[in-house]
Amino acid sequence: MTADAGRHFLQIPGPTNVPARILRAIEQPTIDHRGPEFDRLGQEVLEGIREIFKTLGAVVIFPSSGTGAWEAALVNTLSPGDRVLMYETGHFATLWCAMARKLGLEVEFLQGDWRTGVDPARIEARLAEDTAHDIKAVAIVHNETSTGVTSRISEVRKAIDNAAHPALFMVDTISSLASMDYRHDEWGVDVTVAGSQKGLMLPPGLGFNAVSDKARRASEKAGLPRAYWDWEAMLGVNDTGFFPYTPATNLLVGLREAIVMLLEEGLDHVFARHDRHAEATRRAVRAWGFEVLAKNSAEFSSSLTAVKLPEGYDADTLRSIILQRFDMSLGNGLGILAGTVFRIGHLGDFNDLMLAGTLAGVEMGLKVADIPCAGSGVAAALDYLVEEARGETQPSPQRAALA
Ligand SMILES: Cc1ncc(COP(=O)(O)O)c(C=O)c1O
Q1: How many CB atoms lie within 10 A of CB 338?
Q2: What pLDDT, in 10s, does the model give residues 135-186?
Q3: CA distances from 200 to 17, 48, 63 (A)
Q4: Which atom of ligand 1 is found nearest the CA of 141?
Q5: If DSSP states are collapsed to H, E and C, what string results for 200-233?
Q6: Which of 12, 145, 191 to mutate to test the pocket of ligand 1 (most atoms within 8 A of CB)?
Q7: Do the beta carbons of residue 309 and residue 341 sit within 8 Å?
Q8: To test the ligand 1 pocket, which listed residue (175, 177, 200, 337) has its Cβ within 8 A of the most ligand atoms?
Q9: CA of 297 to the centre of ligand 1 (A)
Q10: What residues contact residue 377 under an 8 Å CB cut-off, 6+ apart?
Q11: pTM given for the model
Q12: How many angstroms separate the alpha carbon of residue 350 from the centre of ligand 1?
């Protein structure tokens, strides 16, 4: 029997569930992108989005997926043959590295184990060796969506500063922005890359670059060819609220609503909510008797959890049972993790009862698939959520680290 009634549970780590408020906002007649109504919309979103990135600088919005925003970050700032330092945190870091190489950049890819984040000490050591300042950029992924590991951006910034190295600092926040604490200006990031389909609760289709003054200056000299992705073409007309080519008009209407919703809830509350759901999920995983893929508690992701299944069990079989029988989509293992892990997305427009339903779907799926569990993950997660609701628990490691 398959699930025909009720709603689908979209619990991949993005695209995420689009809330009704945003769907209603998007469902408007498309307006003239060169008319006065658009002018207001453009100015509002270009202003409002800065608060989400925590920047006073410019944010460029492309009609693109996150991959386009990756490309824009590189081609606007670098020249053919430039050396870039990247770090193998997982599948997405590997894809960004492959893109940089295709664009003609010389990438040094520091090897990782797909279970830990960027080691700031290794970045510092490599930059300190580079006394000729051949490395032009450090480009890393904040929240590695393939592993559920979050790298400590402020510590990587310190590492670059300790080495007194002038490299640009680029950070992919595609699965962390608006879900986990992120501070473009304070953490001295030059280009922050993001997408619409995760913490921003929108459908896919918008790519973002938050750009520092240093990155803008670098773009004046950067020699990689660029046309569609050219920041200057965008920033020139963005000043008046317009775009150089047809923007994704209705997605921008949705973005305006998303910004209002995030600021109404308060970014700190949004982050605390994600931390709480992540902690509840990890407790569920441990109660089932499985391992969270992320090794270090200081690097646990608050937007998704990658779960390692015991040897001999196939994660894709489990996911397909859960989809067919319980109508829930979970994330697959990507790259070298294929078949061995599944990923639970707990980001975006999400609450305690949606998490309870998600974990119940996983637990029932485990039973249907005859994968032995030590105990009830759902019970462990609910106990934690109840304790939290009573205000009895300690802050999660992430919140404690921030305090
Ligand atoms: C961390 C990260 N970077 C980059 C991408 C690529 O973004 P897109 O698929 O929107 O092109 C993704 C997609 O999930 C991602 O999670």
Answers
A1: 13
A2: 999 999 999 999 999 999 999 999 999 999 999 999 999 999 999 999 999 9
A3: 10, 12, 15
A4: 1
A5: CCCCCCCEEEEECHHHHHHHHHCCCCCCCCCHHH
A6: 145
A7: yes
A8: 175
A9: 23
A10: 283, 284, 285, 286, 287, 288, 359, 362, 363
A11: 0.96
A12: 20
Q: Which of 259, 237, 244 is nearest to 44 (CA)?
A: 259
Q: Can you tell me the distance from the alpha carbon of 213 to that of 235, in angstroms, rounded to the nearest whole number?
A: 12
Are residues 113 and 145 in contact, defined by beta-carbon separation less than 8 angstroms? no
Say how far apart CA 348 and CA 384 lie, in whole Å.
20
34 in Cβ contact with 163 (< 8 Å) = no
**Cα of 101 from ligand 1 centre, angstroms:** 18
Contact 16, 10 (CB under 8 A): yes
In three-state secondary structure terms, 146 is: coil
Give pLDDT, residue 397: 57
Q: Which residue has the tokens 């490309």?
A: 71
User: From atom 16 of ligand 1, which residue's Cα is the shortest distance away?
Assistant: 145
- CA of 104 from ligand 1 middle (Å) equals 21
Low-confidence ranges of the chain (pLDDT < 50): none
How far CA 150 is from CA of 140, 156, 229, 284, 317, in Å, comes to 11, 12, 28, 20, 27
Asked if 61 contacts 208 with a C-beta cutoff of 8 angstroms, the reply is yes
In terms of Cα–Cα distance, which of 92, 96, 160, 147 is closest to 117?
Answer: 147
Measured from the CA of 68, which atom of ligand 1 is nearest? 11
Cβ atoms of 325 and 372 closer than 8 Å: no
Collapsed DSSP state (helix, strand, coil) of residue 140: strand
Residues with CB under 6 A from ligand 1: 14, 65-67, 92, 141, 145, 172, 174-175, 195, 204
Ligand 1 closest atom vs CA 142: 1
